[in-house]
Sequence to fold (364 residues):
Amino acid sequence: MRSLALLLCLAQLWGCHSVPLGPTLAYNEPNCDDPETEQAALAAVDYINSHVLRGYKHILNQIDKVRLWPQRPMGEVFELEIDTLETTCHVLDPTPLVNCTVRPLVEHAVEGDCDFRVLKQDGQFSVLFAKCDSSPDSAEDVHKVCPDCPLLAPLNDTKVVHAVDVALTAFNAQSNGSYFQLVEVSRAQLVPLPPSTYVEFAVAATDCAAQETTDPAKCNLLAEKQYGFCKATLTEKFGGEDVAVTCTVFQPQSLLPQPQPDSPDAVNPTPVEDPAMPAPSLADLPAADLVVGPMVVAVPEVLLPGHRTHYDLRHAFMGVASVESASGEAFHVGKAPKVVQPGIVVGPGPVVRPCPGRVRYYKV
Fold:
């Protein structure tokens, strides 16, 4: 009898330990190259490019990691780690991302490293959390593929500042339209042979005529912002210097959501004689009533680090610590969940890992 009683007690204790103490979220680990995963990653890249106010657009290069969480009362959340690459399209350039060229390694490539949480609800994707930083390729790696290629120079280098000033002056002297003011120095390289400085910079049209401006301080930016993007080389010569500058200008656009890269309404920028170029716009991502979205901050120039060679993505936006639904269920970083991994194939031969995914361009 005592043995039976002891057995019953042990069974009850085991039952108590078997009952979960609270609701536990379970996540899947789908394949990084799964089409739905890629859709979520592309929504994340659209978010980057709609919130970066300086520098260049980025494009998806690789999905490193993905977790798929259920989101009550409906929907699911993709927790992503992705790598991006800088393109040659400036953020003010309205060219659709699919038509932008990835900057090659020999031009000193820049890579982005991002963490995202993206909600899919009713077939639509919206960003809940975003955190990124970016960095140029190392000098050693650049010189492995191109020993004589110039590296990125600090944007506040005295030669860079001088080259931009000379190039912008030359552009305004040749212009029959608006007088342009400098918006930012975007990229610079010091070329040893022939001794020269290569620069890329963004400009904006003012209410002054280029051929009539005597005091640029009295010029004001137009109410409907019009932008341009310039590339210039200032070459040092015996007894002087030569400058070659070309600027691409675009028709102004109102601050409406940009078409997505695969939209049939997306068009290429149209150069015009009177300089003009649209301001960056917010991506057309649907707002979700049951989530708190990321906070977007515009970092003042004085807060950005000096002697930088590029505009780090970390200055584009800041993330939020958690996402909470209307039902009170929260999705927190660092929560210990149950794990389901349907994407791993087990059988004869090597184990097939679902992540990281394919490299679309090259590794930095």
